[in-house]
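Technical note accompanying the year-one report. For the benefit of new consortium partners, we illustrate the data format agreed upon in the data management plan: each record pairs a sequence with a structure-token string. No post-processing was applied to the example shown here.
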Amino acid sequence: MSSTAHTPNDQPVKRSTGRLVLGWVLVGIPLAYGVFQTLTQVAALFG
């Protein structure tokens, strides 16, 4: 079974851009905050 969905004309199925952006925002913001906090703590530890 193929991992990508195709239309009968063998063109890739268009994904919802809004959902993709929302997903990246929901993951990216907490990730960026965590990285910032970690680097701040490391700087204070070794600074």
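Partners are asked to follow this layout when depositing records. The longest helix spans residues 17-46.
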